[in-house]
Amino acid sequence: MPDLSLRYASGAVHGEMLVVSITTDQIRDSTLAYALRDEIISLVEATKVRNVVLDLEKVHFIGSVGFLAFLGVRRHLGGGRIVLCNMSEPIRQMFAVCRLIPADTATTAPFEVEANLDAALLRLAS
After folding, report:
1. pLDDT tens across 86-111, in order?
2. In 3-state terms, what secondary structure has residue 30?
3. Which of 61, 85, 106, 123 is the most exposed place for a label (fewest CB within 10 A)?
4. 97: left (phi over 0), alpha (psi -120 to 50) or beta
5. CB count, 10 Å around CB of 85?
6. What are the φ/ψ torsions at residue 42 (nearest 5 degrees)?
7. Tens of pLDDT, residues 24-64
């Protein structure tokens, strides 16, 4: 297994799922955002998974370019799923306003969301 620790993210495989912990606290500029996107894609390629948990516990700010980076990962996965977890309330609200996470159980969005890592892993296992 390759080293799964990179500059802005680290990864760990859980069964057939990849957990990516974002290690930067702010995703403000395009250089960082696209480097983060490329790192996540390289982790996906190295592990050959189709379902990913993005752990945002350390992230305190995401600019619009960060959303584009995450959507780039989403496109790369094709039919795979991405569950976001450990989001602060302001970041959760930003994702919701942009309709990137479901507003309720009846709506669909590019990303799923759970409160914590355990719940995210359970969601992908079902």
Report:
1. 999 999 999 999 999 998 877 889 99
2. helix
3. 106
4. alpha
5. 21
6. -65, -35
7. 999 999 999 999 999 999 999 999 999 999 999 999 999 99
Query: Domains of the chain (ranges plus CATH)?
Result: 9-125 (3.30.750.24)
**Structure tokens of 105?**
């159980």
The bridge status of strand 17-22 relative to strand 9-14 is antiparallel
The pTM score is 0.92
Token readout for 22 is: 């974002």
Cα dist from 93 to 12, 37, 74, 107, whole Å? 27, 21, 20, 16
Rounded CA-CA distance 28/11 in Å is 22
- Residue 84, both tokens: 């976001």
Q: What is d(CA 27, CA 18) in angstroms, rounded to the nearest whole number?
A: 21
DSSP sequence for 43-108? HHHHHT-SEEEEE-TT--EE-HHHHHHHHHHHHHHTT-EEEEES--HHHHHHHHHTTSS-SSTT--
